[in-house]
Amino acid sequence: MEYVGTMKQRTRKLIGTFFIVGIALLYALVATTIAAAKLSDASGWVHLVYFLFTGMLWVVPAMFIINWMLKPDKKSENV
Q1: Residue 55 lies in a domain
Q2: How many domains does the chain have?
Q3: Which domain holds residue 39?
């Protein structure tokens, strides 16, 4: 009965893929909206630095999701 409640790696990969795509889309919308509202009069260099920073920042939550996705399946003790 211990095996009930654990999720197979294949299922975690499917769910994680949807989460990563959703996070990337939402993050891009938020980062672009903030840039449009706050950086409209800024120079091109400020835009470059902002988008380089925010373009890499979404990787942090994605790393945690990928680590969760790649955890190996728990072996059943009855098999």
Answers
A1: yes
A2: 1
A3: 9-68
- Of 69, 57, 65, the C-alpha closest to 28 is 57
**Residue 74 included in any domain:** no
- One digit per residue, the tens of pLDDT, for the chain of length 79 reads 444 458 899 999 999 999 999 999 999 999 999 999 999 899 999 999 999 999 899 899 999 999 999 988 877 555 4
Task: Look up residue 41 and give its two tokens.
Answer: 């009069």
| 12-44 b/e (C-beta count within 10 Å ≥ 16 → b) | beeebeeebeeeeeebeeebeeebeeeeeeeee
Is 45 a domain residue?
yes
Residue 38: inside a domain: yes
Query: Which pTM value belongs to this model?
Result: 0.74
